[in-house]
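Notes from hallway chat w/ T.B., transcribed later so I don't forget. T.B. wanted the structure written out for a chain they're using in a teaching module, and asked if we could keep both sequence and structure tokens in one place. Agreed to drop them here.
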Amino acid sequence: MAKHVDYYVSLNSPWTYLGSRRFEALARKHNAHVSIWPVDFGSVFAVSGGLPLPKRAPQRQAYRMMELKRWRDHLGVKMNLEPKFFPADEVPAAKCVIALRELGRMADAIKLAHAVLAALWEEEKNTGDPATLREIIASCGLDAATVIKASEAPNMAEKRESYTQYAIDHGVFGAPSYVIDGEIFWGQDRLDFVDRKLAA
């Protein structure tokens, strides 16, 4: 029987970006059902011992950059290690992803989230800019005006807060996280284990 994956993402996360295409391929391979959860990891860090990047020790920041380069080269993906617009304001895009998710359009929600990540990390685009976000939405074959309008519904901010609390309640503390049968796989470098879990 096909398994279900709860997929927790940050639309600013380079690690989520690095794992995005591989995770999509795994989900297709195993015919897995995926629910995407774009959450506020600033709030998650506050209760789980994490620190936003600027507050991390210099050694940790330097190692992060080293690891990003290693993974970029290992995977052969296009990636600017220091994109011009990082960190972008991810709230508008997250609300669009949430709106699609709430409309039952999960595949479109995932497609848009990954397009936002690629725009930030590959294409040097300001994904927090409204005009740029509209272009990204349209590039996914979606009607930008409809998606934006849905994202501006009064309850979208509350939805993001509830998604974030749901992540905290289920032990999630970093992005990306893939949760299968209650088991957390944190980081794109755990996708081999995700593959095995989905195959079991």
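Follow-up for T.B.: The radius of gyration is 16 Å. Might be a good example for the class.
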